[in-house]
Amino acid sequence: MKSTSTKQTVQSYWSASANELLKSATIINCEYMSQEECDNLSWHKSPLCLTLHRDGQFFTIIVSADDEQNDGGTLLVEFEETYAILPAIDSRYLNMPKE
């Protein structure tokens, strides 16, 4: 006899987890990780960090290069007909003036 239960896929599981965590949260600040924070993680690239607020709690999204969090990562922002890239910045250049 066949089971009528629906198996959840890995994609649907993680999508539901992300929705539960992030849906209805408000971004209240965006800033790149400081040199000191990069040094504490032994990272050479400073990622964009998003501070959010939901249900009385603050939390931060930190973009990493991979699942093992070996370095800061790039954030790709997709719009309907285009996209924007918010890069990880080499930490050696964090405090250099923008020309």
What distinguishing features does this structure have?
99 residues; 3-stranded antiparallel beta sheet; alpha+beta; two-stranded antiparallel sheet; 20% helix
Brief digest:
With 99 residues, the protein is of the alpha+beta class. Helix content is 20%, strand content 32%.
Q: What features would you describe in this structure?
A:
The structure is a single chain. The protein is α+β, with helices and mostly antiparallel strands. It has a domain at about 25-95. It contains two helices and seven strands, in the order αβαββββββ. The strands form three sheets. A three-stranded antiparallel sheet has the order 1-3-4, with no helix packed on it. A two-stranded antiparallel ribbon has the order 2-7. A two-stranded antiparallel sheet has the order 5-6. A hairpin with a 2-residue loop joins strand 3 (about 50-55) and strand 4. The mean pLDDT is about 90.
Work out the number of β strands. Answer: 7
Radius of gyration: 18 Å
| Secondary-structure element string | HEHEEEEEE
Instruction: Please give the oligomerization state of what you see.
Output: single chain
Structural class: alpha+beta
On the 0 to 100 scale, the average pLDDT is 91
Are there runs of 5+ residues with pLDDT below 50, and where?
A: none
Relative strand content = 25-35%
Helix content: 10-25%
**Main beta-sheet annotation:** 3 strands, antiparallel
* Sequence of strands across the biggest β-sheet: 1-3-4
| Shape by Cα distribution | globular
Number of helices: 2
